[in-house]
Write a structure and sequence with these properties.
Layout lengths: L2 H5 L6 H8 L4 H19 L2 E4 L1 E6 L25 H13 L4 E6 L7 H14 L3 E5 L5 H10 L3 E3 L7 H7 L5 H13 L3 E8 L6 H13 L4 E6 L16 H15 L5 E2 L1 H6 L3 H6 L5 E2 L8 H4 L13 H14 L3 E2 L11 H8 L2
Parallel strand pairs: 1-9, 1-10, 2-3, 3-4, 4-5, 5-6, 6-7, 8-9
Bound molecules: S-adenosylmethionine and iron/sulfur cluster.
The site of iron/sulfur cluster (SF4) has 9 residues, from loops.
């Protein structure tokens, strides 16, 4: 089968995915990106959805080997935003015309069931935004309570679909549990997001193919593929970063395989390459997730060093993204950007919840 046929094939096998991830000539890689962009256009249109992130706490009970927020990193100054600060930031985000708020943190149980429910409920009362939670693995009763309080989506990356590697990176957690959590979240009505890091220590291209196939099996609404960036004061501080090229190839192949899912051009990609967001949007992505965490907290959310756009003010950030997005003939969406898998009737019901 030639490359043209492969790029237009409906159901790519693991071997075919590996073949595409291994493309090496400039011409073939550019052909892959162009086809992914075409499929993105057909499945998602030209709108780019913005998701405004608020990093509500950098405390974490987990010890993931790759992450600067890990519990054992005693060099990191820790913070928690107050509920009032979180709610005020959410209002700032929606006033900029951004209608998804992502509440993200380490696994921090001081933000308990009731406190998170209060924040969700308050944001829902005061803004028309959809709410995505990205709070790590929490209790099944908590997921239920937060859904009732108004949360719409949950982002929980599987990080790697290789159970052995998962066990190496996470001495306290299992891949099978993470998958069970994702399935449970979907069952109780969340739109779910997951994904991997590209270039993790010991990861192979075969593992990345499995990551893409796991995203398909989970029937995700959003799939995120970002490069691993080594973080100081972690066991992997001296490892190499993932590459921009392999990350873009992963996003492009994922677009061919997953089709009608949201795929972000991640901040990690923009951190490794000043044009990373644009390159991502041209290789299958349709989402950008700008960070609106207020200072001084933002600087302390050090998952990895030198994150892109650390000092941008909210209005400048919005204008800068608009310029970038319009420069490639795309436009910022004014909708909540719900799952591409919902029927029009379901979208109306979600919007009025
Ligand atoms: N604690 C929650 C969780 O783990 O799902 C949410 C916050 S966590 C910091 C968000 C994401 O950051 C993780 O899913 C992981 O993919 C990413 N991340 C962590 N360390 C990273 C690193 N060194 N390079 C790139 N991404 C990283
Ligand atoms: Fe904590 Fe999430 Fe970082 Fe793991 S990836 S250490 S759970 S913040």
């Amino acid at each position: 089968m030639d490359l043209f046929e492969l790029l237009h094939k409906d159901d790519l096998s693991k071997e075919e995915i590996i073949f595409l991830l291994n493309l090496s000539t400039k011409e073939d890689i550019s052909y892959l990106y162009t086809r992914a962009d075409e499929v993105r256009q057909i499945c998602c249109g030209d709108e780019v959805h913005l998701r405004g992130i608020i990093e509500i706490s950098n405390y974490c009970d987990q010890d993931c080997f790759y992450c600067g927020l890990r519990e054992s990193n005693f060099n990191l100054p820790r913070y928690r935003m107050t509920p009032e600060e979180v709610i005020a930031t959410a209002k700032t985000i929606t006033n900029l015309g951004i209608f998804t708020i992502v509440l993200q943190s380490g696994e921090d149980h001081v933000f308990d069931t009731d406190l998170i429910a209060y924040i969700i409920y308050s944001i829902k009362q005061e803004t028309p935004a959809a709410i995505t939670l990205s709070l790590g693995e929490r209790g099944f009763d908590e997921y239920r309570t937060w859904k009732i309080a108004g949360a719409d989506r949950y982002l929980l990356k599987h990080e790697t679909a290789n159970p052995k590697l998962y066990g190496v990176y996470h001495n306290k957690q299992k891949l099978s549990d993470r998958i069970t959590h994702l399935k449970f979240l979907k069952t109780i009505g969340y739109q779910i997001g997951s994904g991997n890091m590209v270039g993790l220590p010991m990861q192979t291209v075969e593992d990345i193919a499995d990551d893409i196939l796991l995203c398909k099996q989970l029937d995700l609404d959003m799939a995120a593929f970002g490069p691993f960036i080594p973080s100081p004061n972690t066991p992997y501080q001296n490892k190499k970063s993932g590459t921009v090229e392999l990350t873009l190839k992963t996003m492009a192949v994922a677009r061919l395989v997953l089709q009608n899912v949201h795929i972000p051009a991640t901040t990690a990609l923009a951190t490794l390459d000043v044009d990373g967001r644009i390159k991502g949007l041209n290789s299958g992505a349709n989402i950008v997730m700008p960070d609106f965490t207020p200072s001084p907290y933002r600087e302390q959310y050090q998952i990895y060093p030198d994150r892109r756009c650390m000092t941008d003010e909210p209005q400048n950030c919005r204008s800068c993204l608009q310029l970038q997005i319009e420069s490639i003939g795309r436009r910022i969406s004014t909708s909540r950007g719900d799952s591409l898998k919902l029927t029009p009737k379901e979208i109306i019901n979600w919007s009025f919840k």
